[in-house]
Amino acid sequence: MKHRALGKSGLEVSALGLGCMGMSEFYAGATEAESIATIHRALDLGVTLLDTADMYGPYKNEELVGRALKGRREGVILATKFGNVRGADGAFLGVNGRPAYVRDCCDASLKRLGVDRIDLYYQHRVDRTVPIEETVGAMADLVRDGKVRFLGLSEAAPETIRRAHKVHRITALQTEYSLWTRDPEEAVLATVRELGIAFVAYSPLGRGFLTGRFRTPDDIPEGDYRKFHPRFQGENFAMNLRLADRVREIAAEKKVKPGQLALAWVLAQGPDIIPIPGTAHRTHLEENIAALDIRLTPDDLRRLAEAAPAGITAGARYAEQAMKHVNG
User: Fold this and answer.
1) pLDDT tens for residues 158-167?
2) Which residues, including other chains, have CB under 8 Å from residue 63's CB and lie 6 or more apart?
3) DSSP type of residue 253
4) What is d(CA 172, CA 198) in angstroms, rounded to the nearest whole number?
5) In this predicted model, what pLDDT tens digit does every residue of 39-69 receive, in sequence order?
6) C-alpha–C-alpha distance, residues 164 and 141, integer Å
7) C-alpha dist (Å) from residue 294 to 15, 215, 263, 314
């Protein structure tokens, strides 16, 4: 397994992490048994960064990850998040960054995960009603209390990152990044590189679209969140399929899978970028890890940049209400 520095934490993590969200919600086809087997296989293959959040399930994903890590906690960099509030029925109730809420969430996550310390604790979405200094101040208290090792932000704007970093070192910034979501290139990547913050790229496969798995909207299983995702709808789907087809053509020339090529592209954007593709299946996990051995030539990178220039993807990254909470 290749490794990359986790910002200036002094830690190195596997160059590819594992996103666990889809094991419990949003994407169809997961089972607990296969999900836990996938986590175990990831650990066997040298993956050390596992990513979850309290909102996944809600709450169920942290419990699943905790069960999978029983007896295997050593050497794992365990990341979880707080801030997206959900009701017991799963309803989305907004974003909360108030200090008391931060403390309560951390205690609850520790219990669900079955650990005494979280390695990397993210604010999942920025609460625009609470000064970031107050939220990160409460997160810093968790570090001083020994409940958390390092702090992160997710979907935060450059100025927010700078303000947070002045309160306590931010180790990682997590944001969507792939061939079909190149928004971070506008300003976020430059900001985190200036500050020595690792960039953790979620959805590096374009929520599975770049793997070539979906040829028509009917290929999306019932009960799958992507049925309602803007980029998987109508004309957007058809326009985005042209991008996926171009990636597939280049992948075929290199004799690799489209998803592997998409991952290799993200990895090639800098040694400070750590993709965390999500999967609940061992076969997909092994395919993803094989992307670490793909070498892209300057010509490969040029052709991919031409096939997927910034802004080419049709449709927003999220539905309208959720988009209000990105780049906060």
Assistant:
1) 999 999 999 9
2) 57, 112, 113
3) H
4) 5
5) 999 999 999 999 999 999 999 999 999 999 9
6) 14
7) 13, 25, 9, 28
Nearest-10 Cα torsion for 324, 318, 181, 50: 100
202-214 b/e with 16+ CB inside 10 Å = b?
bbbbbbbbbbbeb
Residue 88 has pLDDT above 90, yes or no: no
Quote the distance between the C-alpha of residue 31 and its chain's center.
Answer: 20
- CA 328 to CA 325: how far, in whole Å? 6
Cα 180 from Cα 211, distance rounded (Å): 12
Quick one: DSSP state of residue 225?
Answer: G
- In angstroms, the Cα distances linking 146 to 10, 110, 117, 136 are 17, 12, 7, 15
Residue partners of 318: CB distance under 8 A and separation at least 6: 229, 230, 326
Q: Evaluate whether 327 touches 159 at the Cβ level (below 8 Å).
A: no
Q: Are 86 and 42 in contact (CB under 8 A)?
A: no
Annotated catalytic residue 122:
no
- Per the listing, tokens 């592209």 go with 265
Helix (H) or strand (E) run with residue 175 in it = strand 170-176
Residues 96-131: tens digit of each pLDDT: 999 999 999 999 999 999 999 999 999 999 999 999
Q: What is the DSSP letter of 269?
A: T
Q: How far apart are CA 125 and CA 115, in angstroms?
A: 23
Catalytic pick among 27, 56, 121, 122: 56
Within 8 A by CB and 6+ apart from 22, the residues are 30, 278, 279, 280
Locate tokens 């702090």: which residue? 151
Q: Which two tokens stand for residue 58?
A: 């809600």
Q: For the CA atoms of 282, 231, 307, 193, what is the dihedral angle to 10 degrees?
A: -70
Q: The whole model's pTM is what?
A: 0.97
Long-range pairs of 9-14 with CB within 8 A, sequence gap ≥ 24: 9/149, 9/150, 9/171, 9/198, 11/77, 11/150, 13/48, 13/49, 13/77, 13/274, 14/46, 14/47, 14/48, 14/49
Joined tokens for residue 128:
């625009």
